[in-house]
Amino acid sequence: MKARKIPVTTIELLDFLKVVSHISETKGISNLREIYSIARSCFIKDIKYYDDYDQAFASTFSGLAIEDPDFRSLLEQWLERALKKDLSEAQKKNAMNLTPEELFKELEERLKKQKEKHDGGNYWIGTGGTSAFGNSGFNPSGVRIAGNAGMRTGIEVMTERKYREYRTDEGLNVRQLKVALKKLKDLRKEGKKEFQLEETIQKTCDNGGDPELIFKSSRKNKMKLMLLMDVGGSMTPHAERVSKLFSAAHQMNHFKEFHYYYFHNIVYNKVYQFAEFSGGITLDRLFKKISRDTKLIMVGDASMNPYELFGATGRYYTSYLYEDSEKNISGMDSLKKITDYYKSAVWLNPDPPMYWNSGTCEAIWNEISMYYLSVDGLKKAVTKLLRD
Fold first, then answer.
1. Distances (CA, A) of 112 to 62, 100, 181
2. What is the domain count for the chain?
3. At what angle do helices 174-181 and 239-251 cross, to 10 degrees?
4. Are residues 158 and 305 in the same domain?
């Protein structure tokens, strides 16, 4: 867990040992599912670490790998074709019952010896029976491999990660993004003053009954936000993630102003009101329309042919988007023009940071602060915007 940067200490370890000791003395611990649940309750204080915990737990207690890829594929095919079979109470009662230590040792032996598919049995890796290995059967202390949970009594779900979406470094949903964006606040008192009943009562009491009326102006968020989003081409695989960011920003109504425009690869001398590159607005018009105190978030993978960033705009690649008067402006020229005007600006990149150190991405990163398009990345970007 520490290797996966889960915040755990010896305090949680002692709590875990106390719980295990107490349960062991009273009723005993019968399988790894109980250990899994107890450990997660003791060690994990935030749901965003569930996925890392699952991987750490699997690494600690399984450590099994089928080295032969052909056999692994064949085993998966066997287990996908499960046969339905009703088990008697006697069969369930006599189901294989192994300790956690015996369980994985036996599984390793089965993987070495098994040569054919098995259904409805009580020994081999198979389906529909009482064996401790496989799926769609019954065994209160078994290892489920592929398939569905059936009786939902297996203690280990091989290679399954149920909580991936809770991660803040990978998982993205609109609610998480809205929470991150809500930190973009510039609250100021404005508008007509309103009568404050509770404060008036409190003040009157403080004055020994001498009435004093309290009026205050309401506080409203004066923050202005603009999204510039790269669409098409290499951004197509990231469309869903960018859409979630846009939805989160668009659904929030506490910004004083919210604007959004589109571009392809890099902003040249024009942005577009629609993703089909219609409704073009030149940068000069954009600057007149949207004030320079607006917070700017640019979204894109920063990946393109170097000529598109450093050469005369789109003479070969994007000529259909630009007028003749715009074709002597490079993408980098336009980016510098934007960051000179909007001093508070960040770039969100949907590609992992390991891919940022080469080509056009590195050049753009040197010009504007770049963050990974995840919940954690957005939080860091928001902090940067508030600081500027």
1. 16, 19, 53
2. 2
3. 50
4. no
Give percent of the chain above pLDDT 90: 19
Please identify which residue in the block is written with the tokens 């004093």.
212
- Taking the alpha carbons at both ends of the chain, their separation in whole angstroms is 36
Domain that holds residue 61: 10-166
Whether the model clears a pTM of 0.90, i.e. scores above it, the answer is: no
Mean pLDDT of 127-133: 59
Same domain, 161 and 248: no
Same domain as 360, residue 233: yes
Relative orientation angle of helices 174-181 and 375-387, to the nearest 10 degrees: 20
Give a yes or no: residue 181 inside a domain: no
* Segment 260-271 mean pLDDT: 88
To 10 degrees, the CA torsion angle through 142, 148, 150, 152? 60
Instruction: Tell me what the mean pLDDT of segment 16-35 comes to.
Output: 80
- Among the residue ranges 213-227, 302-316, 349-363, the one predicted with the least confidence is 302-316
Residues 6+ apart with CB under 8 A from 198: none
In this predicted structure, the answer to whether residue 24 has a pLDDT above a threshold of 50 is yes
Among 23-32, 255-264, 359-368, where is mean pLDDT lowest?
23-32
Average pLDDT over residues 93-120: 63
20 and 142: one domain? Answer: yes
Q: Report the pLDDT value the prediction gives residue 136, as an integer from 0 to 100.
A: 56
Write out the chain in H/E/C secondary structure.
CCCCCCCCCHHHHHHHHHHHHHHHHHCCCCCHHHHHHHHHHHHCCCHHHHHHHHHHHHHHHCCCCCCCHHHHHHHHHHHHCCCCCCCCHHHHHCCCCCCHHHHHHHHHHHHHHCCCCCECCCCCCEECCCCCEEECCCCCCCEECCCCCCCCCCCEECCCCCCHHHCCCCCCCHHHHHHHHCCCCCEEEEEEEEECHHHHHHHHHHCCCCCCCCEEEEEEECCEEEEEEECCHHHHHHHHHHHHHHHHHHHCCCCCEEEEEEECCCCCCEEECCCCCCCEEEHHHHHHHCCCCCEEEEECCCCCCHHHHHCCCCCCCCHHHCCHHHCCCCHHHHHHHHHHHCCCEEEEECCCHHHCCCHHHHHHHHHCCEEECCHHHHHHHHHHHHHC
Amino acid identity for residue 133 in this structure? F
Q: Are residues 144 and 226 in the same domain?
A: no
